Amino acid sequence: MKLNQKETQLITELKNQEELCLQKYNFYAKQAKDPELKSLFRKISKHEQNHYDMLTELTNGTVPHIRTKSPTAVKYEPKATHPGDQACKDFDKFLCTDVIATEKYVATTYNNDLFYFASPEVRNVLNAIMTDEQNHAEMIWKYKVANKMAA
Ligand SMILES: [Fe+2]
Ligand SMILES: [Fe+2]
User: Fold this and answer.
1) What is the pLDDT of residue 81?
2) Structural domain for 128, as ranges
3) pTM for this one?
4) Which of 28, 71, 103, 147 has the fewest beta carbons under 10 Å from its own?
5) In whole numbers, what is the pLDDT of the chain averaged over residues?
6) How far apart are CA 11 and CA 13, in angstroms?
7) How far is the centre of ligand 1, averaged over its atoms, from the C-alpha of 94 (Å)?
8) C-alpha of residue 18 to centroid of ligand 1, in Å
9) Is the residue at 151 inside a domain?
């Protein structure tokens, strides 16, 4: 499988986005006040690393194995765990809102970009990653609702 110039450029831009996601989740995992949110961010950051590695495989000319998809958001059942006062809660709420906006943007980018790829196998990979990003946004949204941060 060989990508053309346009496809290669799109994958390079997607890799930059995945790198930003990875950095953001690692950084926010350190910043978050609630340990439950820290562990959620850490878990998602591992998925973002997987995405980055899959895109690297594509640029090397191989179609990556689609790893077991991240556990669907359906199975994620967060409880009201936030230990902090209102200021701490507002802080974590901001982190959640920010990453949901990022996920929305990234998922939309995958959705737009995959139309440019000739190979159905490559489109399947990009589609699987897009579904992961939607799951990330949904899990964080569920955390917000459980912790009364959704309003
Ligand atoms: Fe990702
Ligand atoms: Fe994501």
Assistant:
1) 93
2) 5-146
3) 0.94
4) 71
5) 94
6) 5
7) 20
8) 5
9) no
Nearest listed ligand to the Cα of residue 15: 1
Q: How many domains does the chain have?
A: 1
Q: Per the domain annotation, does 137 fall within a domain?
A: yes
- Token pair in block for residue 49: 């690393």
CATH number at residue 136: 1.20.1260
Question: Position 63: which residue type?
Answer: V
Residues with CB under 5 A from ligand 1 (ion): 18, 48, 51
Q: How far is the CA of 80 from the centre of ligand 2 (A)?
A: 23
pLDDT digits (tens, 9 = 90+) for 33-52: 999 999 999 999 999 999 99
- The residue behind tokens 């590695």 is 53
Cα-Cα end-to-end distance for the chain: 47
The mean pLDDT value for 10-26 works out to 98
Give the tokens for residue 96.
């959640």
Domain annotation covers residue 109: yes
Compute the distance from residue 18 Cα to the ligand 2 centre, in Å: 8
